[in-house]
Fold Enoyl-CoA delta isomerase 1, mitochondrial.
Amino acid sequence: MAVVCRNLRAFAQKTSSLRCTPNFLRLYSQSKPAPPKLVTVDVDKAGVATVTLDRPPVNSLNTGLLEELGVAIKDLEANKTRGIILTSSSNSVFSAGLDILEMYEPKKQNLSLFWTTLQNTWLSLYRTSIPTVAAINGHAPAGGCLLALSCEYRVMVGPKFTIGLNETQLGIVAPQWFMICMKDAVGRRQAEMALTAGKMFSTQEALNIGLIDKMVSNKEEAIAEAQKFIAQFAKIPPLARRMTKESIRQEGIKYMEENAIDDLKAFMDLVVQPNIQKGLGMYLEAMKKSK
Ligand SMILES: CCCCC/C=C\C/C=C\C/C=C/C(=O)SCCNC(=O)CCNC(=O)[C@H](O)C(C)(C)COP(=O)(O)OP(=O)(O)OC[C@H]1O[C@@H](n2cnc3c(N)ncnc32)[C@H](O)[C@@H]1OP(=O)(O)O
């Protein structure tokens, strides 16, 4: 027994001295790699942040990405950033929308966290006092379109990508706050037509109805247009800007503040329905087969 204790003591001393050596640190960091970041933030000399969704292959919005995006917005607010440009690391997809795997055969707790994180991150993006622009450098269906719609200005790379709230095509109803965002951008009439048909718009069609504000031919141009949009606010008193944004977005903000719990319940009840689960399974299969 005494021998075992002595050996243990010797081992403990050895490992505690090892703890600070470069070799140990290297071994430790090799065995525990940091998880890859799903959102990256680059702030330029003018104080404008490019926030890049970086979850290959299609930036589907899972809890982790949404959480990181929410934290990034809060950090940028704390640092008094002059503007946020939301874009994607992919060459063909801005975001494929909500991650269907978060909704397929979910654990109740995970599903609830997923939706609550989406609600909170959406509200942070929608109401932030920082000027926001979506530089949409690829397809933006459903939740991807929602993120773009939550920004103040949308520049999209064309002509081959598509954008829209396609929920009815999937047999589901877009939540009320998704609809409010579409109405904000294109007005009630166009929103009704777009949403009831679940239409995915080409870049040119999106420009025609005001779903996007500008069409450009590559990501660099999109970023340059976004910077131009943000630069105009240098001359506008920030308090007046902030209060105006908050006021004009009151319907969406109030909706979420007053209905977050009911909205969560409606989502949770819907997603676990056997027919929805079956539909999600079939949709995932169909996406795999279409490759
Ligand atoms: C959908 C029913 C939800 C029911 C829940 C009820 C209420 C929800 C309320 C809210 C509204 C929902 C909002 C949403 O956002 S739902 C998500 C809607 N999104 C889509 O329909 C887009 C689906 N994707 C595509 O159309 C294409 O992938 C693309 C974006 C055009 C890109 O095409 P590309 O050819 O470049 O890629 P692939 O299709 O080959 O995809 C690569 C890889 O990614 C997987 N994948 C794609 N989209 C998603 C996704 N949204 N979630 C999870 N995974 C996705 C795809 O299966 C491939 O995977 P693989 O393993 O085969 O490599």
Notes: Residues 39-290 form a domain with the 2-enoyl-CoA Hydratase; Chain A, domain 1 fold (CATH 3.90.226.10).
